[in-house]
Write a structure and sequence with these properties.
The structure is a single chain. α1 packs antiparallel against α2. This protein has 3 helices and 3 strands. 40% of the residues lie in helices and 21% in strands. By secondary structure, the chain is an alpha+beta fold.
């Protein structure tokens, strides 16, 4: 998830099986890349394949990730250019 003006990005690693990954990839290929304000909507739609609820906003998606047992690692990447 990208924050504010790009000062940092939070990356969530999710434990998935090869079968789940295959379903997610297939679903994503059908949905397309999701431009503009549809990004969280499209990502959430793909994540339904592994048990997440469909949501429309980045904040709602992040709340699910923060509570999920499937998340194995959370990393914060900061903009070092500042």
């Amino acid at each position: 998830l990208n924050r504010d003006n790009g000062e940092y990005i939070i990356a969530y690693s999710i434990d998935t099986s090869p079968e789940e990954e295959s379903k997610m990839i297939e679903h994503a290929m059908k949905d397309g890349d999701g431009f503009g304000f549809n990004c969280a909507d499209n990502v959430s739609d793909v994540m339904k394949e592994i048990g997440f609820k469909h949501v429309l906003t980045p904040g709602a998606l992040e709340k699910q990730l923060q509570k999920s047992q499937k998340v194995t690692e959370i990393k914060v990447f900061k903009n070092e250019a500042d």
